[in-house]
Design a protein that fits this description.
By secondary structure, the protein is mostly beta strands. Helices cover 5% and strands 38% of the residues.
């Protein structure tokens, strides 16, 4: 339901929003390989090769395709894919049509056909092929999975007749299919289709289609060629126009639209730009029904608008709006209204008019950057002004980004929705492939958080119906989500680390936590451990470490699932946390682990940075219900001989593997005892040092060689004090 407008100023205060503060940008085209491109209307930003970095998609002179790929070091490498047509292109979209990990390209112009480029790697592609039944006057384009079979289809707006769609056959081949009946009442030639948005406006779990229409030269508002259309999915992928019933049958000369939640109430509102009246705002009542709220919104500006896109440019937690042609940046005030702020971009000279643009993160810093075109008319490139890249200068506001990869759903996750909850209320983003009027924006779901450092929860809903959930997420991080990873192979591991284990209480001490020494980022990657078999959260918020009592965090641990038949093969490996009572939990500090791998039987391994690891002797059947593996119990068989220490009936991981090799040693070369005394200074064995170090065997935050609670004795206890020259070998294959 709509947020009470009286609560919006409070939300703005909680987010730390400043109503009239404009975000600043720096002209940064020099970082690109291709610095002299001149686009017309079509331009795009998207991660084209699945490396997690946004790339730049260019149609130089509206005809020649090239991609500037972003590299891990921040540089760019450009690859040319040749001319897609001899005519200017009016619309384009990208998406992974064959689910091979590389986005493909499609575009169209005025009567020159619909051109498809299959891309299989950087600079590796199949030359242009023309889709059948492609003789049309292309306008806006999208890729989407309109029949929800896990494969992206293609949609194109037609200026002179009904829109057209090309259906994917399930192997990446596309053919024309008249899936939707676009017949109007009263009857018409169904022309005037300009912008298109595939969106779940009513939040019922399926994609719907909104077409923004402007039949130029038709001045009669009763002519259906001017009526914007909302094709509602009935849940079985049958679509019917219900724009009037939902309050969005706008009869102006509209050009493009965007669906975004401008008031953080969890539903998608609608902004439309027009040529016959001002930009317009329609508020969603929570059921998908809309009310025109333009009056007093701050959007009441007339212009030759072509593009419209909502994004949180200043990370204050509220969606802003950029419209062109012209420099129309509308800052969301956090109270349901907008303020136009001029001079958003530092153009390289006077008289520059922004003609088209794309948004994404071109330096992977959590701030929305803008690539700008200075063309003219509709898709005509400039004859004197190159495109420019403007990097966002950032600010102190926090952010979080989600990068999605489908498996049952289409690989690009087009149609997926991410919802985050926190003091701001609810924020919503959707993954779209092609937006506004022929442009492409980043597929990543970006959220500004204002001053907030914690996301209470995040819900990822996939086109397949799968739902992934996250809790207690730290701000300022990228979350890579593989479809279903929070639901598969769930395991409730219970264990004890001998170093901090206290016999009298049956709990581990949380000295590292109380000393504020546990790092917010997992330490294992830096130690040479490799995350395998999925993508996992690696950073925690301070709130997780503020929990005291039995559920207090002791330290980070490392968990693996190994092949049941050949346990030397690691199928999945990831960081986790261990509590005082022994529960091994997600980085949210509370839930059992979801290992993300296909449900099945695996050997379960638990490791720690200065304890010997341990593996179950038997394969454990894992599925969507967390299976308990209690390594504290002697009845839970483990691989090898004496893999755990028996501490008065509680089985614990052997402590003292300071060197991080495959054994605990007290004497001889490469022993762990000497590392402790060397660390504290060597010449003065009664010295102590504090810190998060492997030499702190009992995990109390203090490295000690002598005296009470020293770390040396823990090493000796593991090898056995009667024969200190023994070694305690880690029992892992």
């Amino acid at each position: 339901m709509p947020t009470n407008t009286r609560t919006l100023p409070l939300l703005a205060a909680l987010l730390g929003a400043t109503a009239l503060a404009a975000q600043s940008y720096t002209l940064s085209t020099s970082i690109l390989t291709n610095q002299s491109a001149r686009s017309g209307g079509c331009v795009g930003i998207a991660d084209m090769d699945g490396d997690g970095l946004d790339d730049l998609i260019l149609l130089h002179q509206s005809k020649t395709l090239s991609i500037d790929y972003q590299n891990a070091d921040g540089s760019f490498t450009s690859y040319s894919y040749g001319n897609v047509s001899s005519s200017s292109q009016w619309g384009m979209a990208v998406g992974d049509v064959d689910n091979d990990g590389h986005k493909d390209f499609v575009s169209g112009g005025n009567g020159d056909g619909v051109h498809f480029v299959r891309i299989s790697g950087r600079g590796t592609y199949t030359p242009v092929t023309n889709l059948n039944n492609g003789n049309m006057f292309m306008q806006g384009m999208n890729m989407m999975d309109m029949n929800n079979d896990g494969w992206l289809d293609i949609f194109g707006c037609h200026d002179n007749a009904a829109p057209r769609t090309w259906l994917n056959n399930g192997s990446g081949s596309l053919s024309y299919n008249a899936w939707i009946d676009y017949t109007t009442s009263p009857s018409s030639d169904m022309s005037g289709n300009y912008g298109s948005t595939w969106t779940d406006f009513d939040n019922d779990g399926d994609l719907d289609l909104y077409i923004t229409k402007c039949r130029q030269g038709v001045n009669d508002a009763n002519d259906p060629r001017r009526w914007n259309r909302l094709f509602v999915n009935n849940g079985s992928n049958a679509y019917s126009d219900q724009a009037a019933a939902y309050g969005v049958q706008n009869k102006e000369q509209s050009w493009s639209s965007d669906f975004a939640d401008i008031d953080n109430d969890g539903d998608l509102d609608l902004i439309t730009v027009n040529h016959s009246t001002t930009a317009q705002l329609f508020l969603n009542d929570g059921t998908g029904h809309y009310t025109n709220a333009t009056v007093g919104s701050g959007l009441e500006y007339n212009n030759f608008f072509l593009q419209s896109k909502c994004a949180d440019l200043d990370n204050d937690g509220f969606i802003d709006l950029l419209c062109v042609e012209g420099n129309y940046y509308f800052h969301n005030n956090g109270n349901g209204t907008f303020t136009r702020i001029t001079n958003l971009l530092p153009h390289p000279g006077s008289g520059y008019t922004l003609h088209s643009f794309a948004m994404g993160d071109m330096n992977h810093d959590g701030h929305v950057d803008i690539y700008a075109s200075y063309g003219t008319s509709y898709v005509t490139p400039s004859t004197s002004r190159d495109d420019e890249l403007y990097l966002n200068n950032g600010n102190s506001n926090k952010w979080i980004d989600f990068e999605l990869e489908g498996s049952t759903s289409n690989r690009d996750a087009v149609g997926a929705r991410v919802t985050i909850h926190g003091p701001w209320g609810v924020q919503v983003r959707e993954v779209r492939a092609g937006e506004s009027y022929g442009i492409v924006n980043s597929f990543n779901c970006h959220f500004g958080l204002g001053a907030n450092t914690l996301v209470d929860s995040a819900i990822v809903r996939w086109p397949s119906g799968t739902v992934d959930r996250y809790f207690n997420l730290a701000a300022n991080q990228w979350i890579k989500v593989d479809e279903g990873q929070t639901t598969r192979s769930r395991v409730n591991i219970v264990a004890a680390l001998a170093g901090p284990f206290v016999q009298g209480t049956g709990l581990m001490s949380d000295g590292l936590r109380t000393a504020s020494l546990i790092p917010l980022g997992e330490p294992y990657t830096a130690l040479g451990f490799a995350i395998t078999g999925g993508h996992f959260v690696r950073t925690i918020p301070q709130a997780v470490l503020n929990v005291a009592g039995n559920d207090a965090i002791v330290d980070w641990v490392w968990v693996e699932l190994r092949d049941a038949a050949n346990p030397s093969i690691v199928r999945v490996a990831r960081p986790a946390l261990i509590q005082r009572d022994g529960n091994v939990v997600e980085p949210d500090g509370s839930r059992p682990l979801a290992m993300g791998i296909t449900n099945g039987s695996y050997k379960v391994v638990l490791r720690h940075r200065n304890h010997n690891g341990v593996m179950t002797a038997n394969s454990i059947i894992l599925n969507s219900t967390a299976t308990t593996v209690d390594l504290k119990q002697a009845a839970t068989a483990t691989y090898g001989t004496d893999a755990r220490q028996n501490v008065n009936g509680t089985m614990a991981l052997w402590a003292g593997n300071v060197s991080g090799d495959d054994r605990v040693k007290y004497t001889g070369s490469g022993n762990d005892r000497d590392l402790i005394i060397v660390h504290i200074g060597g010449s003065t064995p009664n010295n102590t040092l504090s810190g998060y170090e492997p030499e702190d065997v009992n995990l109390d935050g203090m490295i000690k060689y002598t005296g009470a609670a020293n770390d040396r004795d823990r090493v000796l206890q593991s090898v056995g004090s009667t024969v200190p020259s023994n070694s305690r070998v880690q029992q892992l294959p």
